[in-house]
Amino acid sequence: MRPPIDHSQPLGPSAGWVNLNVPHYALFTSGSQNGPGDSMKKLAVPGGITMIVLALILLSPTEVIGADCSKVTTGLIPLPELGRGLYQGHQGGLYPGGSNQAPGSYVSTGQAAARRIEPRSPSGGVDPHGKIVLMSIGMSNTTAEFSTFVIWAKQDLHRDSRVLLVDSAQGGAAAENWSSPSAPPWTVADQRLAAAGATEAQVQAIWLKQADPGPSGGFDAYVPKLERELAAIVRIATGRYPNLQQVFVSPRTYGGYATTQLNPEPYAYETGFADQWLVAQSVSQPSARPWVGWGPYLWTDGTRSGQPLSWTCQDVQPGDGTHPSVSGQQKVAVMLGDFFDTSEFATWYRAPAPQTSSRPVARWPLSQPLLIAVLVLVGLTVGVATFALGIHRLR
């Protein structure tokens, strides 16, 4: 049974992301993540300074817009629920044809890709004492959620200790910022990988969650552009990471509380279609490397009843209604943990089942007839010796 998140431990994203929901700034940097004994490094600025900064923000002439907690639902239907129904002329579902059932050949190749993921040495050779790097690629929301998952995973007894989680997602690095091989986010990703004590040859799986800021032009302008950028990111990652086998995609979380144009609804919802189209490419080319599949589907229609996930106004930052709060980060972290702990495509994430120690069955070294002959001989020898001893005593 997976342990719950330790709420006494500060949860937050990696370096560069400031959490104003705690009484001090918390700056997290990726440390070694090989086992539960490792910890996140925290640099804290006293709460008094934070209060001064907050006061300056409040007194600033720039208008501070808070989350709109009245928009608890949009009426949009999550893709798995939409199924063969249409949105903007496009079917829902996770897979082609509006289906939520993955095609058989695609499942087989995904399972085969999972079997190819093994602990590797820094040079990339298979090594039982090596590492399996699961890396995140994405924007500010992604780094906030994945770095919380890193903390969660350290408490997960199901995780193989050789799986190393490296948060390479970065604030301000949207899909369009990753879509060039020479783009700065890839350099930062290299730095974070090195800081974690890993190499490009050990990266074998990626969690990809992306969007673009300030979208416009509606579905037909936004979704095809985002899908092209996601495909470019996968191609670049394939070239950089020679042992990359799997990429798992997830859409944005609910954006109905947003009061900025960063990535509001319906664009947050529509990121799921870009992911769907990317997965469809992998379905049509199942032998291509890497295999691209769904991670947890994160979008839900706010607090509408009857959904497996409820996304409340408390799950977003009060400043913009877009970035996840601590509770939002935790919800996504738990969904990631549940996915990797149970998915048939992530068997490499889970620790090998302990070998049951059973006593070996005793086997006689001799055949049964020979054994009987030996026992008879031993019996006769003992009998003769006993008889001789008795005769000796009579004398």
What does this structure look like?
The strands form three sheets. The protein has a five-stranded parallel beta sheet with strand order 6-5-7-8-9, sandwiched between helices. The chain has one domain: Rossmann fold (3-Layer(aba) Sandwich). It has ten helices and nine strands. It is an alpha/beta fold. 37% of the residues lie in helices and 10% in strands. It is globular, with a radius of gyration of 29 Å. α4 crosses α9 and α7 crosses α8 (267-284).
For the secondary structure, the number of strands is 9
Spatial order of the strands in the main sheet?
6-5-7-8-9
Strand pairing plus helix content: what structural class?
alpha/beta
Quote the distance from N terminus to C terminus.
78 Å
> How large a portion of the residues is in β-strands, by DSSP E?
5-15%
The name CATH uses for the topology is: Rossmann fold
Q: How many helices in DSSP terms?
A: 10
Shape: globular
Q: What sequence of helices (H) and strands (E) makes up the elements?
A: EEHHEEHEHEHHEHEHEHH
- CATH superfamily (homologous) name: SGNH hydrolase
Number of domains: 1
- What's the pLDDT, averaged over the residues? 82
CATH classification class: Alpha Beta
The rounded Rg comes to 29 Å
CATH architecture: 3-Layer(aba) Sandwich
How much helicity do the residues have? 25-40%
**Biggest beta sheet attributes:** 5 strands, parallel
Low-confidence regions: 1-64, 357-368, 378-394
